[in-house]
Design brief:
Blueprint: H1 14-25, E1 28-34, E2 46-52, H2 58-66, E3 84-89, E4 93-97, H3 108-124, E5 128-136, H4 143-155, E6 159-164, H5 171-185, E7 196-197, H6 206-215
Parallel strand pairs: 2-4, 2-5, 5-6, 6-7
Antiparallel strand pairs: 1-3, 3-4
Helix pairs in contact: 1-6, 3-4
The protein binds guanosine-5'-triphosphate and magnesium ion.
Guanosine-5'-triphosphate (GTP) binds near residues 54, 56, 74 and 99.
């Protein structure tokens, strides 16, 4: 049997699991919230970021990874994260929580401002090692996601899809939506060829993602 393209990321081995655990058990400090490109901290270390539609679960995933309940603000109100929030993960990495895209309810001028900032950041950050693009397990890849994935292709930023809220779906529903995501990813040269399935609520996939991040240097 040939492997399906875009398989789920394998479970980490003990060594990588431990590296991931140690990285996230160590210091994680909020550095700053950035509202315009000149405010970005110096690009002096590797960076990973979490991008995705409003309410997909970016901030919740950062909290689950770090085991700190309210490090990144998470909420029921889409459009909650309104700045690019930088966290120092140990001494050698930045972890970045981005404002969501695709949220139509906020004032137009505000949305335009976040979107422009988000796009400039994704296109122009040299130290950005990988963008984790979160996709809601219930919804799959939407048109607004396509726009971001295409922008990442053009900027040659490798992105890896992380499916969120898997606890909200049955296994068959999950498989069906995963197939939709796989078909969408096949068109994107910048897509990293493994998908991570997560639930910030239940903890699924969190160790795997910690190990992946610890392995990026
Ligand atoms: N059941 C379940 N709910 C989740 C999960 N992850 C996030 N949520 C909920 O989804 C909502 C949005 O989560 P956030 O983490 O604030 O989403 P966000 O992507 O940071 O949103 P913005 O900052 O607005 O872009 C919250 O009510 C979370 O509790 C999950 O794994 N399972
Ligand atoms: Mg958020």
């Amino acid at each position: 049997m040939t492997a399906l393209p875009f398989p789920l990321a394998p479970e980490p081995d003990d060594f990588m699991r431990e590296r991931g655990r140690l990285l996230f058990a160590g210091p994680v400090d909020f550095v700053k919230g950035v509202v315009a490109m000149p405010g970005l901290p110096p690009a002096d270390r590797i960076e990973i970021c979490f991008a995705g539609r409003s309410n997909v679960g970016k901030s919740s995933l950062i909290n689950a990874l770090t085991g700190r309940k309210s490090l990144a603000r998470a909420s029921n109100t889409p459009g909650r994260t309104q700045e690019i929030n930088f966290f120092a993960l140990g001494d050698h990495r930045y972890m970045v929580d981005l404002p969501g895209y695709g949220y139509a309810e906020a004032p137009v001028a505000t949305v335009m401002k976040w979107q422009a900032l988000l796009k400039s950041y994704l296109q122009g950050r040299q130290t950005l090692r990988r963008a984790f693009v979160l996709i809601d397990s219930r919804h799959g890849v939407k048109a607004v996601d396509e726009e971001i994935l295409t922008l990442l292709d053009r900027s040659a930023v490798t992105f890896q899809v992380v499916m969120t809220k898997m606890d909200k779906l049955s296994r068959p529903e999950r498989e069906k939506n995963l197939d939709q995501v796989r078909a969408a990813l096949a068109k994107h040269p910048a897509a990293f060829p493994e998908i991570v399935m997560t639930s910030s609520e239940k903890g699924d996939g969190v160790e795997t993602l910690r190990a992946i991040i610890a392995g990026l240097e």
